[in-house]
Q: What sequence folds into this?
């Protein structure tokens, strides 16, 4: 029985002062979540219903491809993470602690180490493979800047599934099963989504895709073109053409006092930004100072740069590069005492660079002739770049799931092997697949809300029907509302019944804020007309149903909703 007089649904007229994302504002106002601390959220009853409806969709689809549900602990011995190498590779986002005996522990962000250890202890033969294991579990992440409500938090629930196979071909099969399952999950959840190529990041492995829900609050940027979708972290595209000036026999110095930005220099010299080479000095973990060059109209992509280097890096401080290259704002590649990494988008020709002397630039600088270099794709793609002749656009999106081909990244250090038909020990090939139910819920709010509140997709709404009774106890309309409440439940609906002693305006405002797909209203006009007022929340379309058989008629209407 879900009556608002007895239900914990603390709605608010105003959003939290620090809320920027629409989902943050509306989920708090609708009484779905409450903040405990920075990046820490409680799911209140109606919000938890949404979360668990998402969980059930995910569970059904992973079960359908042969997944076996289990549960692994949040608290892990640090030794497992040390053996995989992630204890040292992950930065401060990993919670590290000690127990009372002084043993090092971690709060798990993901569970590759634990599940691989279990498989290493149990799997012996090729006959034990393939396997799909999964769980829903709390994850902990010491997020430096929690924001956007439940979108970027320090504690969250996630579904992890893991495939274990004999070889790369088997991994491809398990990966494809998950790809198809994920497609069905996001379709069933009612989201707008797309699958994009992505970086493997801290997970490691040989390939990855992310599932993205486009919305303004998204923390990821996605590059899109017909037949192409990729996270900008790894996106590649043909750069827009730039008209380079005529070459010179040798670089020529030009005075640019006080002009340290691309905009300043291009305005002074009357050239396009793409004719400049922008210098980015970095310190690479295992090899020291390096100078990275991109076109002046491009930006360095740190993810691509890290992958190209095969090592970590940080921006160099001025005292680390001034003596070996030049002063900040005027550094360039000619005569630089450092290896040079040149972006692939820099075509042959004459460019303008820093002169490594205060207040001066060089023009007519040609890569190869005037400085040595190595090449790599290290730039961020830009709007207007092309893929197969089609211009890309870049839009923000929420990451709602990811799938990784891990290969033997974890099985080798953790000893997960099997004996093949010839009795030879071989490493198990793994895949890892994550989904965040909270992110799916927040994405649905972002994508379908209007100026009045949330508008849930039918499959993940906290309730199917919001019944609003306007009659006071003892009236005929109140008795009718009570009877319809029982009939709706008997018809199989999850119903929230607003039986509060409140005015119609307050009840309607709360109903629209909560966003249940179908609202039925029982009042004096209902009895007079012999009909029930119905509002379809998506689009706020008003309809009516006859009193007789109203519950079954509402069920048919509900089934037709998105």
A:
């Amino acid at each position: 029985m879900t009556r608002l007089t007895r239900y914990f649904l603390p709605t608010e007229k105003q959003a939290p002062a620090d809320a920027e994302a629409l989902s943050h504002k509306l989920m708090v106002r609708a009484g779905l979540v409450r903040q405990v601390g920075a990046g820490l959220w409680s799911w209140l009853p109606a919000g938890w219903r949404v979360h668990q409806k998402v969980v059930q969709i995910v569970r059904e689809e992973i079960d359908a491809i042969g997944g076996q549900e289990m549960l692994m602990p949040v608290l892990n011995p640090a030794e497992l993470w040390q053996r995989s190498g992630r204890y040292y590779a992950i930065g401060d986002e990993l919670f590290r602690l000690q127990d009372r005996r002084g043993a090092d522990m971690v709060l798990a962000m993901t569970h590759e180490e634990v599940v691989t250890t279990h498989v290493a202890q149990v799997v012996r033969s090729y006959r034990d493979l393939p396997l799909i294991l999964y769980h829903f579990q709390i994850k902990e992440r010491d997020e430096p800047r929690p924001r956007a409500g439940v979108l970027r938090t320090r504690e969250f629930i996630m579904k992890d599934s893991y495939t274990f196979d004999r070889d790369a071909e088997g991994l491809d099969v398990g990966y494809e099963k998950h790809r198809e399952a994920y497609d069905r999950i996001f379709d069933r959840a009612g989201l707008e989504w797309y699958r994009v190529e992505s970086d493997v990041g801290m997970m490691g492995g040989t390939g990855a895709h992310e599932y993205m829900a486009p919305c303004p609050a998204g923390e990821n940027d996605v590059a899109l073109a017909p037949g192409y979708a990729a996270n900008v972290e790894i996106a590649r595209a043909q750069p827009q053409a730039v008209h380079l000036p005529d070459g010179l026999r040798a670089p020529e110095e030009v005075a640019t006092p006080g002009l340290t930005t691309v905009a300043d220099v291009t305005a002074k010299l009357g050239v396009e930004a793409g004719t400049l080479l922008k210098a980015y000095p970095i310190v690479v973990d295992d090899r020291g100072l390096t100078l990275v060059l991109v076109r002046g109209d491009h930006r360095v992509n740190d993810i691509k740069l890290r992958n190209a280097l095969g090592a970590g890096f940080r921006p160099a401080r001025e005292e680390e590069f001034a003596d070996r290259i030049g002063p900040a704002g005027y550094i360039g590649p000619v005569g630089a005492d450092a290896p040079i990494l040149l972006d692939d988008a820099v075509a042959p020709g004459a460019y303008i660079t820093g002169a490594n002397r205060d207040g001066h630039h060089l023009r007519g600088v040609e890569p190869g002739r005037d400085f040595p270099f190595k090449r790599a794709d290290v730039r961020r793609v830009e709007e207007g770049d092309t893929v197969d002749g089609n211009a890309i656009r870049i839009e923000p999106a929420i990451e709602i799931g990811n799938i990784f081909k891990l290969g033997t990244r974890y099985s080798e250090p953790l000893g997960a092997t099997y004996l093949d038909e010839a009795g030879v020990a071989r490493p198990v090939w793994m895949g890892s697949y994550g989904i965040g139910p909270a992110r799916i819920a927040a994405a649905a709010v972002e994508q379908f809300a209007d100026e009045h509140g949330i508008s849930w997709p039918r499959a993940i709404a906290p309730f199917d029907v919001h019944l609003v009774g306007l009659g006071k106890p003892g009236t005929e309309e109140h008795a009718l509302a009570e009877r319809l409440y029982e009939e709706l439940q008997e018809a199989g609906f999850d119903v929230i019944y607003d039986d509060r002693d409140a005015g119609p305006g307050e009840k309607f405002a709360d109903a629209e804020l909560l966003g249940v797909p179908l609202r039925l209203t029982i009042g004096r006009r209902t009895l007079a007309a012999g009909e029930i007022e119905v509002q379809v929340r998506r689009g706020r379309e008003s309809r009516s149903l006859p009193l007789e058989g109203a519950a079954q008629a509402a069920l048919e209407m509900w089934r037709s909703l998105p």
Observations:
- The mean pLDDT is 93.
- The CA atoms of residues 116 and 411 lie 6 Å apart.
- The longest helix spans residues 168-188.
- The domain at 30-70+109-216+400-446 is CATH 3.30.930.10 (BirA Bifunctional Protein; domain 2).
